Amino acid sequence: MATLSDEAIEERLRGLDGWERKGDTIEREFKFEDFQGSVDFVNRITPPAEEMNHHPDLAISWNKVTVSLSTHSQGGLTESDFELAARIDPLA
Question: What CATH number is associated with residue 86?
């Protein structure tokens, strides 16, 4: 899978709420009521990530989870990153 051009990345970001580009990744912070809410969210992310064989980088703290997506094997952003982001959003 080829990496996306800067223009394609910006176009796809317009279709995602709250996601920002950070270099070769896209990232979004999700907030919850407490630590249990953060962990539950991470557990909801697991099935689509496994199904796609595309795994996000996660930072978990008490009431928030930061999700970062990049296709490391390709050295940048691909369609898979945006597809997984779109699948993650409704899980929050």
Answer: 3.30.1360.20
Q: Please, which residues have CB within 8 angstroms of residue 31's CB and are 6 or more apart in sequence?
A: 63, 64
Task: Give the tens place of pLDDT for each residue, 25-51.
Answer: 999 999 999 999 999 999 999 999 999
Sequence-ordered list of residues with C-beta below 8 angstroms from that of 69, at least 6 positions apart, any chain: 25, 26, 27, 54, 56, 57, 77, 81, 84, 85
- Domain of residue 14, residue span: 6-91
**Alpha-carbon dihedral angle through residues 84, 52, 58, 33, given to the nearest 10 degrees:** 60
Domain count across the chain: 1
3-state secondary structure of 51: helix
